[in-house]
# Entry
Amino acid sequence: MLIIVILIGYGKYNQYKRYNSPKVNYTSSKTVDLEYYNQDIVLKYYESVEELNSYVMLQWSANNIDVRTPEDDDNKTKIAVKTYAKKLAVLKYYEDILSKSSELKSKGLTSEEIKFLTKNGIDLKTYNKNLYKNKLITLFKNTPQIKFGSKHPIVFEIQKILIKKGYKLELDGVYKKETFNIIKNFETKNNFLSDGVLDLLTLEALLK
# Structure
């Protein structure tokens, strides 16, 4: 009689265990951006979470396998665990994208800037800076040498750069004594020939 009671009790326990699994819902430890510019990624993230949770529950209820912490190492368990690992990897892929976006937004980037960064491998601010640098260098190369007293857009842009670097001067586009002396000072600090002449070497150093 005792054996029968034990067997019945064990059967009841297995039935209870089968339909009362441990907490299966996946919980991310990361902050994800649910306002990500590409909402398809957000949808796929949600789908992968649901798919993973459903798979964990299915393996537990149908096969009595906890794929997260398996107790056995039989072939059926190994296959289930391997499938779980693949589904988890897909989820992590989307999670990392959304987590990175959340991190970038916390640093002040907009969705548009994140979109640009994702597609071009460089942030919009750096891209625009490089674009400006290349345009200015091209313009400089196609411009006759700037002489003392010359008024030119190149000088205007150089003055803006110098002002951003902390130099105090009038923003008028004229290569007069004030700008000339600051260029000489800049050349001295950078171990260039201190002649006040605006050449390509000085311009490239200013643009760094």
About this structure: Residues 30-120 form one domain. The first helix runs from residue 2 to 19. Residues 158 and 164 are 10 Å apart (CA to CA). DSSP finds eight helices and no strands in the chain.
